């Protein structure tokens, strides 16, 4: 069983998958920073200085309290919140990652089509099969006898 596991773990596909996951996690962190730190602040500024990460609605709070400045304050108090801004950030992150993957797959497909459409190398002369060469020799000998 240990040998089977070693064969499985040392296959190229598993290593490729592990590398892809690590790169995917790093890419996710970059996209999170892009959305949270670069894209959303100007949008919030245009919309009146709103911080999207703190855009939430208190559905119910302890003792009917509904006035909290941050999501963290509401959570510490035990309030139930509807975190609209965090959802919008998550949707933007998904769209950016999906678009990046679309561009990556499109690039690979373009390269594959170009590779499939490339003609075979014309450097090597095409030699007929041995049987055809023998038939040509016989034809030439018979033509020479006439």
Characterize the structure shown.
By secondary structure, this protein is mainly alpha-helical. It has a single domain (2-104), classed as Non-ribosomal Peptide Synthetase Peptidyl Carrier Protein, Chain A, CATH 1.10.1200. Helix content is 68%, strand content 5%. It has five helices and two strands, in the order H-H-E-H-E-H-H. The termini are far apart.
Task: Sketch the topology as an H/E string, one letter per element.
Answer: HHEHEHH
So how many helices? 5
Q: What is the CA–CA distance across the termini?
A: 77 Å
Cross-sheet strand order for the largest sheet? 1-2
Kindly identify the CATH topology: Non-ribosomal Peptide Synthetase Peptidyl Carrier Protein, Chain A
Count the E strands.
2
CA radius of gyration is 33 Å
Give the CATH level 1 class: Mainly Alpha
In total, the number of domains comes to 1
Key terms for this structure?
146 residues, mainly alpha, Non-ribosomal Peptide Synthetase Peptidyl Carrier Protein, Chain A, two-stranded antiparallel ribbon, 2 strands, elongated
Summarize the structure.
It is built from five helices and two strands.
Topology (elements, then pairings):
Blueprint (H helix, E strand, L loop, with lengths): L1 H8 L2 H35 L10 E4 L10 H7 L2 E3 L1 H34 L12 H16 L1
Antiparallel strand pairs: 1-2
Helix pairs in contact: 2-4
């Amino acid at each position: 069983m240990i040998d089977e596991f070693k064969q499985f773990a040392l296959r190229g596909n598993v290593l490729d998958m592990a590398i892809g996951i690590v790169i995917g996690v790093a890419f996710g962190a970059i996209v999170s920073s892009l959305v949270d730190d670069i894209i959303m602040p100007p949008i919030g500024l245009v919309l009146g200085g709103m911080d999207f990460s703190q855009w939430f609605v208190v559905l119910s709070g302890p003792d009917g309290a509904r006035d909290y400045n941050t999501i963290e304050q509401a959570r510490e108090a035990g309030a139930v919140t509807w975190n609209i801004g965090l959802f919008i950030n998550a949707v933007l992150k998904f769209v950016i990652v999906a678009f990046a993957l679309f561009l990556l797959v499109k690039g690979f497909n373009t390269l594959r089509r170009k590779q499939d459409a490339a003609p075979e190398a014309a450097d090597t002369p095409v030699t007929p099969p041995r049987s055809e060469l023998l038939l040509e020799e016989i034809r030439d000998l018979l033509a020479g006898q006439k």
